[in-house]
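User: Sorry, what's this?
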Amino acid sequence: MNSLLLKKSDLNQVIIKKSITISPSTTLLEARETLLRHKLKRLIVVNSKNIPVGIITEKDIVKTVYALGDKSIASVKVGGFMSKNLVTIKKTDSVYQCAKLMYRNKISSIIAVNQDGTLYGIITKTDLASIFLTQVVEPIKVSKIMTRKVITAMPGDSLLYVETLLINNRISRVVVQRNNIPVGIITFRDFVPAKLPHWLVESADPKEVENYRLHSQLTELRVNQMSHLLQFKAVDIMSANPVTVDDDEDVGVAVMLMIRNNISGIPVVKKKKLVGIITKADIVKAIAQH
């Protein structure tokens, strides 16, 4: 792969988006309402000088609500539970620098600041993936950056087995295959039991759901729900006929498919057979390493 993967340009010329902000004194309920109203996954917390001092996500709100137990949430302020270890970048820095920070810190977004430290905007994995559509110097084949090890299940496998695959491998999706041909996709939110609260269902990742179950009381209702899961197979809940991409297609095609279908990962096939998977994280990694 060419060492100059993208056209030389700084973040300000390419992908930085403006962000809705809140203050540390914003209540948890107000922050939640803002996320819902604007259909966002994260909010940047700024002080009176518009300097970023924290960031909160849907998952931060979920964790905080659970930690409160029976206590009232009406008086809980964002400043008490926001993430304070911020990764920031200057708006004049390069796309490469941004990708390296994102990849090195294993995060999905980075805050962009002005020279004086005030907020300028935010960059996400989706933003970095999108630059392949306009900024790539030479076409890159999917096979060059895809992840070759794919965690799979069979249509007849139990949902509890699929759940185990997600948790133990710390992944977001399992490809359901028959004769090495992708026939479905299952993500954690496809089958999280109804016992789990709505907020966790909407923003679940395997590690958090595992922790929730381990630290929650095992009631008779929960036992019955787990038994209920045993009756179902992967084929019962999978999203059938998954979007796929050929290994010799350009990465730009994979990006367009992700954006068009609002997904973050696509099975890669060769002559219809599963040979890998490509995700937005793979694209960020490719930018970071070149």
